[in-house]
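hi! just following up on the protien thing from before. the input was this:
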Amino acid sequence: MATLVIVPGWRDSGPGHWQTLWADQIPGAVRVQQDDWITPSRKAWITSITQTILAQPGPVVVAAHSLGCIATTHLPAEATARIQGALLVAPADPERRSVLADFAPVPYQSLPYRSVLVASSNDPYCPVRTAGAYARAWGSEFVRLQNAGHVNVEAGFGAWPLGLALLQSLMGSGGNSWFSDPGISQTTPGNAPAHHAGSLAA
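and the predicted 3d structure came back as:
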């Protein structure tokens, strides 16, 4: 069974964020730690994510948020070879925010694993059209949420059942045991209606 590797974005994911809840609730989940969450360095972040992935005993599924999505697409081949799938939620646009500029330009080539990109129609950190362009370039399945902000605590997203369902689809049958665990909430807010645009691969 693949290991869940959680990749937070700029400023980390605090209490109540779906990434934090998943890290606490999903058996075997591993959370990437960074030395500097405030002024992120692409080299340092990629090194931390790569080391976390390679430290796992087998394949991994990545659940990334915001800048974590962009960092994931920058990973070297030895890390991507271990990724079974990736849930990329509310990707950042590093070209729009100077503190994130080290992560630009964003890679625009197909990812060598299955990926699902979730974006919001009113994300203040990345226009949905930019997120759609990412999905096309990366070969990701595109899920568009209506008025979901940055898909974080401020936008009302807790354990996020829809996200868990998308994650389970990437895990395959190995993820089924998570959903039979009574400790994993399926009823918290944040199950926003989604428009599934399907694969936008070129």
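The beta strands are 3-7, 30-31, 60-65, 83-89, 114-120, 141-145, 194-199.
The chain has seven helices and seven strands.
cheers
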